[in-house]
Amino acid sequence: MRKLISFVHISLDGFVAGPNGEMDWIQVNQDIFDHVGKRISKGNTALYGRTTFQMMESYWPTAADQPNASKHDIEHSQWYSKVHKVVLSKTLSESKWSNTTIISDHLFEKINEIKQPEGEDILVFGSPTATHSLMQLQLIDGYWLFVNPVVLGKGIPLFANIQEPVKLKLLSTQQFTCGVTELNYIAESRQSK
């Protein structure tokens, strides 16, 4: 069974965005893009909440076609166009992309169905509202966190409404020159699943 991994930039005090969804505090550089690109290029499924999906859909399909497209824009645009996109939404009914599945109900059953085939991890990109729903159903198997050297003080937390403690095992860490530290965790109770 594939694992569902939350992939997110986070502040030192645990926020994924400012109070109004601000993400201008997130630091990235080519080293991070290359590091992330290696891992996601192996995968064929990405999961988004509606808001994050609509942000991605408005940029990535044509990012590689822009005259000033960076290496990251080209590579991620190509990956985005071929990856199977799963969107959690109660309001979105369709997408113009043929390789997109929209889940609006029976979340536990449908996510477990998507996790069934063997293969690479399914990454949940950002999407705090969707992530909170997945956490409540204990569907998140791990966390791939990019901790930014900033304390926001308030905002949208990654961890909210946790019903019981989740013990995590640290699999790897990496520091980047921009000050970001990657922490890659797996839930201990789900290591062998």
TrEMBL record:
Pfam families hit by this protein: RibD_C
Tell me the Gene3D superfamilies matching this sequence.
Answer: Dihydrofolate Reductase, subunit A
Q: What domain of life is recorded for the organism?
A: Bacteria
Query: Domain named Bacterial bifunctional deaminase-reductase C-terminal: which ranges?
Result: 2-180
Please name the PANTHER family in this protein's record.
2,5-DIAMINO-6-RIBOSYLAMINO-4(3H)-PYRIMIDINONE 5'-PHOSPHATE REDUCTASE (PTHR38011:SF11), DIHYDROFOLATE REDUCTASE FAMILY PROTEIN (AFU_ORTHOLOGUE AFUA_8G06820) (PTHR38011)
Q: What is this protein called?
A: Dihydrofolate reductase family protein
* Species of the source: Niabella yanshanensis
Classification from the root reads: Bacteria, Pseudomonadati, Bacteroidota, Chitinophagia, Chitinophagales
